[in-house]
Write a structure and sequence with these properties.
Helices cover 83% and strands 0% of the residues. It has 123 residues and is an all-alpha fold.
Length: 123
C-alpha cells in the first residue's frame, strides 16, 4: 500500500509541477491563435444556430483532448492531495483545512468538466 501511495504522490507532483503548466501554456496559445477567434464567436452569437454549431464543433475538436486529459489529471491531483493529508493520530494537522479546500476546488472543477463530458464524447 505504501508503494502505491508513493506512486500516487510522485505522479501528482509531476502533473502539478510539470504537466499542468505545459497544458496551461498550450491552452493559452490555442486561445490566442488565429484558429480561435473570439470576434467570430461574437458575430455568430447574433446569427442563427447553425454557424454557432459549426464554430463550436471546430473548436471542440481542439479542446476535447485537452479537457479530457485535464479531467484525468484533476482526479489524480485530488487523490495526491488526499494522500498528503496526515493521519489524525499523527497529530500533525497543520494545513489540513487548506488541503480540504483544495480538494473542494478540485471537486468543483471536476463537476464542471463532468457536465461537459456528454458533449465532449458526442463530438
Amino acid at each position: 500500500m505504501e508503494e502505491h501511495i508513493a506512486d500516487i504522490r510522485e505522479e501528482g507532483e509531476k502533473i502539478f509541477l510539470e504537466k499542468m503548466p505545459r497544458q496551461i501554456h498550450r491552452l493559452e496559445e490555442l486561445l490566442r491563435s488565429s484558429n480561435f477567434d473570439w470576434k467570430e464567436l461574437s458575430a455568430v452569437r447574433s446569427g442563427a444556430a447553425a454557424p454557432l454549431n459549426n464554430f463550436l464543433n471546430q473548436h471542440y475538436t481542439h479542446l476535447k483532448p485537452i479537457l479530457l486529459d485535464f479531467m484525468d489529471d484533476l482526479c489524480k491531483i485530488r487523490l495526491w492531495i488526499v494522500c498528503l493529508i496526515p493521519r489524525v493520530e499523527d497529530g500533525d494537522n497543520k494545513g489540513v483545512e487548506i488541503q480540504h479546500e483544495v480538494i473542494d476546488v478540485c471537486n468543483e472543477g471536476l463537476s464542471s468538466l463532468d457536465s461537459l463530458l456528454p458533449l465532449l464524447l458526442q463530438i
